[in-house]
Amino acid sequence: MYIFILLLLFILLFQVSSSGPEHFQEDHFTKNFELPLRGFFTLVIVYHHLSQYLDNPGPFRVFLEVGILCVAAFFFYSGYGLMKSVLTNQNYFRHFFLRRYIKIFVPFFICNILYLFVYYLTGDRFGLKLSLEYVSGIQLINPQSWYIIVIALFYFVFFVTFRFTRNRIISFFLLGVFQIAFPTYCMVKGPGIYWFQGEWWFNSSSLFFIGILIAQFEKPIMKYTRKWYYPLLLVSAGAFLYFFPKSVQVLDRIEPLLMKEHIFAKEMLGNWICFIWQTLAVINFMIFVFLLTLKIRFTNRILIFLGSRSFELYLIHGLFLEVFRSDKFYIQSDFLYTAAVLLLSLGCASFMYYPFKMISKKLEQYSLQLYK
Predict the structure, then answer these.
(1) What is this structure's pTM?
(2) Rounded distance between C-alpha atoms, residue 149 and residue 136, angstroms
């Protein structure tokens, strides 16, 4: 199993470059800079989910707790990208939902149908009601696709708070209120199989708001960061190495979301303690990544390839995780299981990329014509 970890490190470090001790990456946070990191974080998420399915995780135990860090990066990049687009494009909110929702929901629905079809071929049978719930996403046939629901909600809240409020301070305040209300609502709902039930739905979501703040105040932040770069890098690394293991220890002692509770129940205190520690961990992680990538650029053809197909990889890998560890088709060897999941997930993600892109583009063009 070590070979898969070495492969992951090779993919990250291959052709890595540095700006040198006196210079900084000038294209930091641009789409081309961010794309390879998205690819890497998506692959780590696949490793994270694999670690939960292996009979004997062995060296893969290192990935058991890192999923929250990678998802935090996605929230951060999404928030930053939205705010940056608003600041640089006066007409950005025009057709906002068409452009945003078509790109995420078309692959989402197609993959739901694909999951249902494959499960049917392997012998699973679902009633009409449950099948429709799976296809529509009311109930997730792919548990890993929860992020699509959350980011769609965050897109909507961002649109409402920044589109209809001219005062930017009020917009930030309203979005901040939502960022507190959302985890609170999830905590009250407690554990379950439906939307917003489970700590993963909210435990890294604060980075969406952080990304928006970074975009808004990027110039003064970058000026301060360049001046105090090395002390900040050292402090951020130390803070992350403290808060992340500590957050894992806290979750081992305090079980989050034990039951459905009302907002003032004493059990809610444990939920908030877990959430605060996790929030401190993911914030310090992204600060460290932000500072590290000011000097070091992780980019090569493999990472760019993964980044361009990261959404498809995220959506499809859950199918192979389930099918190859099902009652009908169980791969006994953890090594062969891991290899099969990685190869077929990457292969299918590559195959789906162009059809998904073409279908989404055609639907967007057709929808825009209807509005003319």
Answers:
(1) 0.91
(2) 11
